[in-house]
Structures are given as C-alpha cells and as structure tokens.
Amino acid sequence: MAADRRIVIENCSIATVDADDTEYTSGHLVLAGDRIESLGAGKAPEGLENVVRRIDATGHLVTPGLVNTHHHFYQWITRGLATDHNLFDWLVALYPTWARIDERMTYAAAQGSLGMMARGGVTTAMDHHYVFPKGSGDLSGSIIRAAREMGVRFTLARGSMDRSEKDGGLPPDFAVETLEGALAATEATVDEHHDASFGAMTQVAVAPCSPFSVSTELMRQGAELARRKGVRLHTHGSETVEEEQFCKELFGMGPTDYFESTGWLGEDVWMAHCVHMNDSDIAAFARTRTGVAHCPSSNARLAAGIARVPDMLAAGVPVGLGVDGTASNESGELHTELRNALLINRLGAHREAALNARQALRLGTYGGAQVLGRAPEIGSLEPGKLADLVLWKLDTLAHASIADPVTALVFGAAAPVTASFVNGEQIVENGRLLHVDEDAIARSTRDEARRLARIAAQA
C-alpha cells in the first residue's frame, strides 16, 4: 500500500502500550501505508487526503499486534501426545516421532501454528525449529513460505542438535546433525533469508536447541556465528529442575553460569522459559539485558514450575510471551497467554501483586518486541511505527459488562478479533484468515499428522 493511501480507524478504545501506557477511551488512528501516521483522542482530523477506508470501531479495543517469542511449529501435527509427562520424559517419548518429519509436514504444521496465532491477534511470530532429519527437504524454506503466504511478520530461529544419546544427550542418534553440518546450514539460512532492514518481514536467529541436546562447541561457535552475521541468538534455558541437575553434572555449573561461559548472555540473546532462576541468575540476565520468553501454559502442561516474572521485570530483564510448541500447549493461541501469565504468576510468591492486566498486555506486545530486538518498529502504537495492530471486539455477551477494556481483554474470555493488520495490510477479518484457506489447512494438518504417525509406527 502506497504511503499516501490512508486508513482511518475511529470510535475505539486504544491501549498504546507506549512508555507512558497512554490510553484513549474513545480515539482514532490514521494508518499511512505501512506506518502509523497519527493517533489520539476523539475523531480523526478533518481534511485527510487519500483516505481509502474508514473503519467505525465502536465497541472495540485497539492494541499493538501480539508478538510471539517462542514456538515450535512442527509440533502442530503431534498435539495431544504424552499428556502426563514431565519435560525429559516427554522429549524422550516424542523425539523418535519428530525425527521423521519432512518438508510437506513442516509446511502444513507451520500453516496450522501460524493460522491459529494470527486468528488470535498475533502479528509477529517466531519459530524455533531444530529437527532436521537427513533427506527431509527444505524445512526452513517451507516454514518461511507459510509465514509469507499468511502475511505475518516472522523470525525463524534456525535450531540445531548435535548431542545425541551416545553423547549423553536426549535425542536419538539419528535425530541430530554434526557440529560442522549444523553451523554450515545455519549460516546458509541466515545468508538466504535474513533481512536486517526496518520493517523486515523475515529475520533469522541462531538457535542451538538446549544444553542437554547441544555440545558446548556448538554453543560457542553458534554464538560466534550469530555475532559475525549480526543476528540474534535463542535457546532454551533453566526450564526444569532436571535441566539444572544435568548442567551441574555435565558442566560443573548451573545453566546461567554455563550460558555465560559459552558467550550466551547479552542484549542480542533471548532464552525460552527460565523457570528455575535464582537471584544471581536474574541479576546476570538484567546486567546483560538477556531476554526471556515466558511460556506459562507450556510450563504448567509439563509441570516445570512458575517462572519468577515479577522479579525479572523488577530487575529490568526484557520479558515477552511465548506459545511454545503445541505438543505442550495444544491450543496454540498467544492471546490466552496474557490471561495465563497473570493468573499463574499470582500463584507464586507475589500473589495478587505479581502482575496486573496492563503488565500482561505489555508482555505480549512491547515486551515481545524487545525480546526479538524489534522495539523501535513494533510493540506499541506510536507515530512512525509499523502499522501492526489488532481490533478486539468487546461489546458482545462475553465482555460488554466489564467496564475497563484492558481488563476485559486480559481477565475475560478470549476476545474475538474483528481485524488484524500487518504493515497496514489486513490479514484477519471477523476471526477468519484472509490470505489462506483455513479449512484446507485443517485438512492438510490432519492428513500430515496421520501420515507422520504411520511413518513413526513403522519405524
């Protein structure tokens, strides 16, 4: 859309999630091309030129688009398995199946994962993909293609594993890459797909999977590769008590100290989960500005524990929200994580003072933008930022009697998405995806899930 073409949105509540948490009870936004041109209280200015569309958003709350900071798209076709396992047992149960995925499966699974998030207000997504079976095709390319077709802004965290069972890791021997192969493939993915420009639709991060599936050398050289290429770093960290014990037995130190020893703390790094963090761990993350992807539903599903999010925020640690893979969060929706983050954290030490509605919304928007290194572009509604935003319908039975719209969004039932925009282009209308066929995706994900189950059973 050319920069001189405008969309005007009026008569809506607005939560900007800017530095001052500015809100408008009844306000307007003007989108010009891919940017937010202006916003404020009351009606839009008179006399605007080249207005191609006006939206009467009465009964709606407008927020920044949600930003997902941790996911594993391929797991969409292994949902509902190993439902009563802790993390390590769950991984051992599922790795043999995951190691049989191929390009057709990852494409369908990416469509399912992305579609479910986009319908629920996600405008920026990421995928931590770390399973690359030999001869499986162009898995990274298939995932990026699915995001491009859906119109969602996207970060591919190109993962890897090289520590298999024979080396003391959890993945089966046939499910890992070599050190040299993983590094070469990761660098090739960055070279082919990463876009460093403002407003980029596709970016790539370097993302060895976890301390218990990756060699120390892959961690070290992965960090060196990312910094040489100028891209971000991502991995799992401090997810379970068992992981902490594993690190102490294998490396003689806890996860945070191990990460620091391999170059994996810094403002260009974000970690998934970070459930078992002591005061010194949190201080190290705050000192280095290392980010955290908080995944409350997955942490509960796998009985991992409650992350100390209030303490992280108080210390200045950047924190965003993550769906995590849908084999450990079958709903696959990020907007439900706003509510779950607030409620689960109130079960912790801070009780009712842990998080409030606006802090939860910030985690899912600006916090996520910080974690992905894109806060200058997205995560809040401000003039000059990219026009990534969501219109939540709050005047139906589910929410109409809740006076405060942000409270309605976070505490209430999952709110319908009337419209979602990325770069000023609409990708969702009345809860339906505009650029892809949802019913066709449902069929293909079902078929690929069944095909994978057959292949795994025959192996």
UniProtKB/TrEMBL annotation:
Hydrolase as UniProt keyword: yes
Molecular function GO terms recorded: deaminase activity; hydrolase activity, acting on carbon-nitrogen (but not peptide) bonds, in cyclic amidines; metal ion binding
UniProt keyword annotations, A-Z: Hydrolase, Metal-binding, Zinc
UniProt keyword Glycosyltransferase present: no
Pfam families, sorted: Amidohydro_1
Domain Amidohydrolase-related: 61-425
Alphabetical list of InterPro entries matching this protein: Amidohydro-rel, Metal-dep_hydrolase_composite, Metal_Hydrolase, MTA/SAH_deaminase
Entry-linked NCBIfam families: PRK08203.1
UniProt-recorded name of the protein: 8-oxoguanine deaminase
Organism: Streptomyces dioscori
